[in-house]
């Protein structure tokens, strides 16, 4: 592997909708064996099984300081609920999906936004993410200190994984939160989760896969082979289509896709059945008053969801706490057994002591919507011309451990080989560590959007709308022209650069007042391949480069250019002053592609009507 980073350690953080964790490896480990990656095991202080991730749960006090994280946050909040003191605390779960939902609801998250805790109290989203990153960062540093390893914070490169379906605003939000948490830009990078998974899987020996045809699994990672990665987590299902390049690097050949129908959708179907049986108020009271029992009930269902065997015709038994039975009896003056017998679930559900027994036919319906949406999304990818010769599907992520989801994919795509890494739930974390050591292993991607710069060009009567006409330095100009640099759905390689030649003038007396003002290079994205103006439907401002005049004032004629450079999961926009060679840059997240530039066109950057 080439271009390996030189810091002593690479550590990766994965915030899942259900579980969060980190993994790491030393540089010497990576050089000797890239898949030799370490990750801690997490277990509740109250006892119980250990897991490679801890629940994505946070408990903050009234001053919004972090008090507990993971299992400990769940257990402490359960006690707080039993003592009816929850109003003095902030308790958050699934905070990762709150960020994604905020974007779907068209909230402006570029700086910050408010999310609500489990009881509806508002809190800064950036504070929540910052505290979560700080906790996991400190946990690793504490481990090193306890073992006298001699590693400090400056010796570590950090990678944070994000779903491939997250838009640029989500990724920039995560980047800003990491900066506030003490992980600075030159020590921080982002990797898309399905890409990280395939980076890890391609290095695994064949015995580390679950699949029928071991030779096919090996061939999946041969040069020229195309395959789909289905990263099924708790909140989202990400689908990425990849091709192995001749040198072994990975090319992303289709726009990332997927949606918020991960394993949590199955849990929600289960909760809906419980709500139909006992009523929403009863379930809410149980969650509030017996939080520990509620958490253990849902943990048990999570285990049964992942370990259910399709060939088994036995009923599924899940925990149904006695404390919930008592609340039902007090609230509705009836037993759960009587309620079931009077419901549409008679013969499908039964209870005995602290167990609920669910017939397989009903249990499998909890999976239907998630499985169907996943299959539909994969089918739409395979219909794309670039993906017609895909030969295999690799399933990773915690929800991919479910035989039900695996079976749905295998049946729908019987002509393809479907396989799962043995530790599929850790593939993303371990792959992110490998990516951190060698980011150039992912060599190219496909743009999700068209990227360009807002320009003014000489006005052409009949060709340009009159509404865009304005006068500057005695010339007629057309404003808001979308100059395309990288086009949606085209390949782009890391390091690709596109340039736009520009000039500005400050000649007439009317323009002199602007000579001390910064120039603005406004970068736009569009979901259309060939937008004409930045005001067209589907266009939005994505980043701005502010360029201050050298010496405090611009000359009468200013010559320069804007360049956009692809840099892994981000793009760098730079304005270059052709006279002084000064460079002013800004970074922003991206999903990119390329364009052809025609030299000699007369264009200008400054638009006097543009907002400051």
UniProtKB/TrEMBL annotation:
Keywords: ATP-binding, Nucleotide-binding
Keyword Methyltransferase: no
Presence of keyword ATP-binding: yes
Top-level taxon in the UniProt lineage: Eukaryota
Gene Ontology terms for molecular function: ATP binding; ATP-dependent protein folding chaperone
Pfam families, per database record: HSP70 (PF00012)
Record-stated family: Belongs to the heat shock protein 70 family.
PANTHER family listed in its UniProt record: ALPHA KINASE/ELONGATION FACTOR 2 KINASE, HEAT SHOCK 70 KDA PROTEIN 12A
Protein's recorded name: Heat shock 70 kDa protein 12A
Native source organism of the sequence: Mytilus galloprovincialis
């Amino acid at each position: 592997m080439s271009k390996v980073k030189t810091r002593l350690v690479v550590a990766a953080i994965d915030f899942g909708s259900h579980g969060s964790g980190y993994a790491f490896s030393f540089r010497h480990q990576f050089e000797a064996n890239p898949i030799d990656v370490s990750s801690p095991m997490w277990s509740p202080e109250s006892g119980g099984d250990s897991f490679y991730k801890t629940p994505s749960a946070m408990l903050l006090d009234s001053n919004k300081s972090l008090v507990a994280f993971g299992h400990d946050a769940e257990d402490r909040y359960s006690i707080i609920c039993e003592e009816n003191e929850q109003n003095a605390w902030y308790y958050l779960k699934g905070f990762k999906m709150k960020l994604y939902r905020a974007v779907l609801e068209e909230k402006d998250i570029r700086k910050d936004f408010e999310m609500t805790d489990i009881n509806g109290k508002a809190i800064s989203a950036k504070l929540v993410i910052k505290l979560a990153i700080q906790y996991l960062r400190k946990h690793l540093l504490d481990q090193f200190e306890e073992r006298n390893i001699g590693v400090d914070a400056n010796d570590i490169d950090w990678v944070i994984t994000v779903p491939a379906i997250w838009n640029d605003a989500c990724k920039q939000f995560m980047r800003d939160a990491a900066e506030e948490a003490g992980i600075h830009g030159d020590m921080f990078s982002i990797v898309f989760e399905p890409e990280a998974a395939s980076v890890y899987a391609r290095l695994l020996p064949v015995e580390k896969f679950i699949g029928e045809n071991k030779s096919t699994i090996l061939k999946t990672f041969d040069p020229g082979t195309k395959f789909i990665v289905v990263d099924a987590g708790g909140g989202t299902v990400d689908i990425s289509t990849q091709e192995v390049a001749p040198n072994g690097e990975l090319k992303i050949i289709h726009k990332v896709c997927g949606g918020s129908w991960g394993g949590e959708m199955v849990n929600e179907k289960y909760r809906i059945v419980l709500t139909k049986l006992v009523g929403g108020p009863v379930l809410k009271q149980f969650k509030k008053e017996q939080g520990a029992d509620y958490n253990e009930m849902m943990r048990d269902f999570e285990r049964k969801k992942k370990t259910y065997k399709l060939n088994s015709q036995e009923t599924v038994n899940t925990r149904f706490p006695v404390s919930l039975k008592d609340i039902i009896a007090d609230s509705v003056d009836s037993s759960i057994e009587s309620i079931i017998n009077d419901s549409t679930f008679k013969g499908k559900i039964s209870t005995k002591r602290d167990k609920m027994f669910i017939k397989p036919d009903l249990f499998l319906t909890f999976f239907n919507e998630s499985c169907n949406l996943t299959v539909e999304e994969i089918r739409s990818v395979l219909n794309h011309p670039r993906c017609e010769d895909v030969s295999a599907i690799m399933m990773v992520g915690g929800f991919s451990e479910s035989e039900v989801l695996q079976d749905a994919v295998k049946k729908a795509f019987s002509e393809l080989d479907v396989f799962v890494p043995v530790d599929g739930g850790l593939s993303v974390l371990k792959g992110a560590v490998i990516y951190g050591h060698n980011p150039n292993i992912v060599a190219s991607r496909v743009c999700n959007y068209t990227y360009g710069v807002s320009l003014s060009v000489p006005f052409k009567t009949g060709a340009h709308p009159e509404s865009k006409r304005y006068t500057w330095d005695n010339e007629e100009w057309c404003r808001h022209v979308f100059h395309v640099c990288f086009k949606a759905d085209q390949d782009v390689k890391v390091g690709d650069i596109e340039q736009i030649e520009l000039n500005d003038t400050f000649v007439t007396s009317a323009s002199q007042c602007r000579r001390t003002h910064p120039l603005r290079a406004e970068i736009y994205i569009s979901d259309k391949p060939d937008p004409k103006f930045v005001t067209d439907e589907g266009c939005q401002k994505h980043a701005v480069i502010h360029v201050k005049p050298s010496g405090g004032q611009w000359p009468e004629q200013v010559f320069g250019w804007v360049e956009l450079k692809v840099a892994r999961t981000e793009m760098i926009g730079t304005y270059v002053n052709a006279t002084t060679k000064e460079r002013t840059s800004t970074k922003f997240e991206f999903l990119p592609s390329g364009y052809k530039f025609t030299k000699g066109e007369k264009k200008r950057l400054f638009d006097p009507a543009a907002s400051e």
